[in-house]
Write a structure and sequence with these properties.
One of its GO terms (cellular component) is plasma membrane. It is a single-pass membrane protein. Its main location: membrane. This is Wall-associated receptor kinase-like 20. The chain is of the alpha+beta class. The chain folds into 3 domains: about 140 residues, no CATH class; about 110 residues, Phosphorylase Kinase, domain 1 (2-Layer Sandwich); about 210 residues, Transferase(Phosphotransferase), domain 1. About 30% of the residues lie in helices and about 20% in strands. Strands 3-4-5-6-13-8 form a 6-stranded antiparallel beta sheet, with no helix packed on it. It binds 2-acetamido-2-deoxy-beta-D-glucopyranose (NAG) (8 copies). One 2-acetamido-2-deoxy-beta-D-glucopyranose (NAG) binds next to loops.
């Protein structure tokens, strides 16, 4: 899968250490602009996969069918900005409509970043059904009403706004007769600014960090001392200049540099991270100033470059912090101290993404520290995604991100510490005394809190967020059994995705919306489906998937649907709950069961929204409470 490979390359490169070097293969300047490696304006420089064009002193990007001017390049984060197409005279249509807007070749290592706010103008009515924000208060209306730049669009009633970078918008911003006929884009737009202070329109594009250069023979590989022309073990029948040990490929500068990569990570130790931490604290700086050894000098440069790159990453993370809640940046030293250098006794859990440790900050705050597994690209990606998502939300039923650390070899997130384990652990009696605490009213409250958190994501977060991996092991409980939804690694902002097809499976078996298999789309109603399964777990204390049940009943949702058809819903309820329960309480259990089945409706449009689910649980709680009062 091309995307996966790209990601792999990207992440592998990210984890690789930076080095010092002077660039030898970069292309010459184009007019006033430098052309950083790997961008290539000619056959003898840069990396040929990264072709751009130098046209009479200005840089251009050729898309599938069209050409756009490159207005700026930021090599440290592998991004450049192109100027969107002009509007045709006197109509609200962009000149590139004949090419269906910006269409990148998805086989090339360029994609459209999520820093772009796209305004779609002169849209057809069908767009009203899209997940884009086409309301009369949306940013595009504000722009049309106040910019004067697109006066022709005032007469076009429908326009919509979205953030790019979703799976369907990473290679195109599509305009066409049957959709929207014009677009413009702004990079890192602060929507709170008045329109006259918005930046110039621009569309930001990112490039994937490059692999080692291709070669035909050894003569193509620098002076022959630093690299050797060998067949690429990753396949493709090509040969590349692989760095000779102990040198290693530095994708940013595009050279072989001294390898300072090591098996560091959570639990590991290297002098590099130590040095970085030292440098940050100022202590290391003194050390380096004092040093005259060339080795140390080189190392210093290397660390400096690493720091610069990390600073950029940090900037990105802080830019993502749009919800107004400050995510703190922790140093590697902070994190190591808090977790006693990732001591095994502090390990709270491990999953596909990596590991979670308990930590104690210097001010005594208990925290949970999650780090992506070293070399696990999916994990790294999920952790970075989680930062983006969590920086935008704040609700008492959602786990809180306190900050992150990008200083060690893999991204690390720091959350408030939730003391009492997961809902799954409690339901399965894995927590000492766990299930004993679980009265019916506790369970209802947990259901309500979690539902409220999800409803907030769907209807109060802007843009809406779909969690995409709702399950009982992602619901944390604190000492007072307040529920908090966690693990936003798979979640997505509700993007444009008109033509969204995501082919790699998401979510967890037993919780996954069956409609997903039909159209490969996950929506807010997919979260509703998964939450329905959680409700059934709360009601029955059974696992979502349990191979100890009869073959037909392995899946809890299917099992419960059968029980309801046979009018035996109460037979499936956790016996511990039924013990001593009043008739009225039994009724509320049944009611929750039916609500759960409503969430599991095959057709999405028949499922309630998360907000309706929350209200329904509230209603059930009130009935249950009324009973308490009677007693
Ligand atoms: C190059 O720089 C000169 C002088 O700084 C400026 O006048 C000119 O517009 C620049 N050209 C481009 C293509 O940016
Ligand atoms: C919007 O697009 C339609 C279809 O291309 C075009 O006929 C119309 O003139 C456009 N509206 C405005 C206000 O320019
Ligand atoms: C883009 O160009 C290709 C040929 O290079 C052509 O087949 C295709 O129809 C063009 N697409 C558009 C939208 O113009
Ligand atoms: C897209 O890029 C690949 C790789 O360079 C190339 O082989 C292919 O022809 C390009 N596709 C189009 C439609 O230009
Ligand atoms: C659309 O955007 C406006 C302005 O940013 C916001 O107030 C509104 O809630 C958004 N609507 C939806 C449905 O997201
Ligand atoms: C833009 O102007 C239209 C018509 O004057 C008005 O209905 C709409 O509310 C305005 N929208 C914004 C965001 O200012
Ligand atoms: C775009 O490319 C970057 C850098 O390789 C990558 O991290 C990101 O996941 C890509 N985005 C999409 C939507 O493919
Ligand atoms: C080879 O590597 C050494 C050490 O990193 C460096 O000084 C030298 O410039 C490199 N030579 C080439 C041609 O890249």
């Amino acid at each position: 899968m091309a995307a996966a490979t790209k990601l792999l390359i990207f992440t592998a490169a990210l984890l690789m250490s930076a080095g010092y070097a002077t660039s030898a293969k970069s292309c010459p300047n184009c007019g006033n602009s430098t052309v950083p490696y790997p961008l290539s304006t000619g056959p003898t420089c840069g990396d040929q996969l990264y072709k751009i064009r130098c046209d009479a002193g200005s840089l251009k990007l050729d898309t599938l069918n069209n050409t756009y001017a490159i207005t700026s390049i930021t090599p440290s984060i592998q991004r450049f900005v192109i100027r969107p197409a002009n509007f045709l005279p006197n109509v609200c249509i962009t000149a590139d409509i004949v090419y269906q807007g910006v269409q990148l070749n998805s086989s090339l290592p360029f994609n459209i970043t999520s820093s772009n706010t796209i305004l779609y103008l002169n849209c057809s009515n069908e767009l009203l059904q899209s997940p884009l924000n086409c309301s009369s208060t949306s940013l595009c209306h504000e722009y049309v009403n106040n910019s004067g730049a697109v006066a022709s669009c005032e007469a076009a009633p429908l326009c919509c706004t979205f953030k790019a970078g979703g799976s369907s918008t990473s290679y195109m911003i599509r305009v066409r007769q049957s959709g929207c006929r014009a677009y413009t884009s702004f990079v890192n737009l602060d929507p709170s600014l008045p329109v006259n202070r918005w930046p110039e329109p621009g569309l930001e594009i990112q490039w994937v960090l490059p692999r080692e250069p291709l070669c035909g023979s050894q003569a193509d590989c620098d002076d022959g001392r630093n690299s050797t022309c060998r067949p690429d073990p990753a396949g493709g029948g090509v040969r590349r200049c692989f760095c000779n040990s102990p040198l290693a490929w530095d994708a940013v500068v595009g050279l072989c540099v001294e390898d300072c990569q090591s098996a560091d990570g959570c639990g590991g130790k290297t002098d590099r991270t130590g040095l970085i931490a030292g440098l940050t604290s100022g202590l290391g700086a003194t050390l380096f100033v004092a040093s005259i050894s060339i080795l140390l000098y080189r190392r210093h440069r290397r660390i400096k470059e690493a720091l610069e790159r990390l600073a950029k990453e940090r900037e990105d993370i802080l830019n993502a912090n749009a919800g107004g809640r400050a995510a703190k940046l922790f140093t590697g030293k902070d994190i190591k101290k808090a977790t006693q250098d990732f001591s095994r006794d502090r390990l709270l859990g491990a999953g596909g993404y990596g590991e979670v440790y308990k930590g104690i900050l210097r001010d005594g705050t208990d925290v949970a520290v999650k780090c992506a597994k070293l070399g696990n690209t999916k994990g790294t990606d999920q952790v970075l995604n989680e930062v983006r998502i969590l920086c935008q939300v704040n609700h008492r039923s959602l786990v809180r991100l306190l900050g992150c650390c990008v200083e060690l070899e893999q991204p690390i997130l720091v959350y408030e510490y939730i003391a009492n384990g997961t809902l799954l652990e409690h339901l399965q009696g894995l927590k000492p005394g766990g299930r004993g605490l679980f009265t019916w009213s506790h369970r209802l409250r947990i259901a309500h809190d979690a539902a409220e958190g999800l409803a907030y994501l769907h209807s109060s977060a802007v843009p809406p967020i779909y969690h995409r991996d709702v399950k009982s092991s992602n619901i944390l409980l604190d000492e007072k059994l307040n529920a908090r939804v966690s693990d936003f690694g798979l979640s997505r902002l509700a993007h444009t995705d008109l033509s969204h097809i995501s082919t790699c499976a998401q979510g967890t078996l037993g919780y996954l919306d069956p409609e997903y298999y039909r159209n490969y789309q996950l929506t807010d109603k997919s979260d509703v489906y998964s939450f329905g399964v959680v409700l059934l777990e709360l009601l029955t204390s059974q696992k979502a998937i349990d191979f100890n049940r009869e073959a037909d009943d392995v899946n809890l949702a299917v099992y419960m649907q059968r029980m309801v058809q046979e009018e035996r819903i109460m037979d499936a309820v956790d016996p511990m709950l039924k013990e001593g329960a009043s008739t009225l309480e039994m009724e509320t259990m049944k009611a929750l069961g039916f609500l759960a089945l409503g969430c599991l409706e095959e057709r999405r449009q028949n499922r309630p929204s998360m907000k309706e689910v929350t209200e329904e649980i509230e209603y059930i709680m009130n009935i249950a409470k009324a009973k308490d009062v009677q007693n």
